[in-house]
């Protein structure tokens, strides 16, 4: 019956693919919880305050991070309990991802939702969680804590985040084979 439901919603059912890593063979909806969680590359960009121009919808990222973001690691310091301490923290779901325009273009959830492959520096591809930092794709060491900052202060903290490296530096050696 899933096929009928999908056809009624105007979507063609995708054929079941068996070969390749899960992010190439499954939709976001088909992923298990561990697969879904491993899809996060750990960049921390979703934890940085983003402002939207009410007139034109333009997004502006700041260097101000959620109070739970550990600036040294670029990771949430209390991920399992984040909603308790930051009630407006957005929990990503397969249905929400396509609607969240503030997710960075390099976000693995966005890439997979758009049918694109993960970047070379994604830990599932590289086998190394540090490649996201090596590629300059993370916020590690580039943010300041939220504090009591209001919108006028945030406007002074707008920054232009650098583009990640398109390919690994020549000195980079993959630590292990990529995940399947």
What does this entry show, briefly?
The protein has 180 residues and is an alpha+beta fold. The protein has eight helices and five strands. It has one domain (22-155).
Notes on the protein architecture:
By secondary structure, this protein is α+β, with helices and mostly antiparallel strands. It has one domain. The chain has 8 helices and 5 strands, in the order H-H-H-E-E-E-E-H-H-H-H-E-H. A 3-stranded mixed β-sheet has the order 1-2-5, with no helix packed on it. The chain has a two-stranded antiparallel ribbon with strand order 3-4. The protein is globular.
Radius of gyration: 18 Å
Query: Helix segment count?
Result: 8
Average pLDDT value? 86
Helix content: 10-25%
Key traits:
5 strands; two-stranded antiparallel sheet; 180 residues; 3-stranded mixed sheet; 8 helices; single chain; alpha+beta; disordered N terminus
């Amino acid at each position: 019956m899933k096929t009928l439901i999908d056809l009624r919603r105007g979507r063609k059912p995708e054929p079941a693919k068996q070969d390749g890593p899960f992010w190439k063979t499954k939709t976001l909806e088909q992923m298990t919880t561990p697969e879904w969680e491993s899809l996060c590359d750990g960049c921390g960009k979703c934890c940085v305050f983003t402002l939207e121009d009410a007139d034109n919808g333009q997004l502006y990222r700041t260097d101000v991070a959620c109070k739970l973001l550990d600036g040294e690691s670029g990771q949430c310091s209390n991920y399992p309990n984040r909603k308790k301490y930051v009630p407006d923290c957005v929990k990503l779901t397969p249905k929400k991802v396509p609607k969240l325009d503030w997710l960075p273009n390099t976000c693995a959830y966005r890439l997979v939702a758009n049918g694109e492959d993960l970047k070379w520096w994604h830990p599932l591809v590289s086998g190394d969680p540090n490649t996201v930092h090596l590629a300059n794709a993370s916020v590690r060491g580039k943010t300041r804590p939220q504090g009591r900052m209001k919108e006028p202060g945030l406007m002074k903290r707008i920054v232009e985040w650098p583009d990640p490296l398109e390919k690994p530096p020549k000195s980079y050696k993959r630590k292990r084979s990529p995940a399947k």
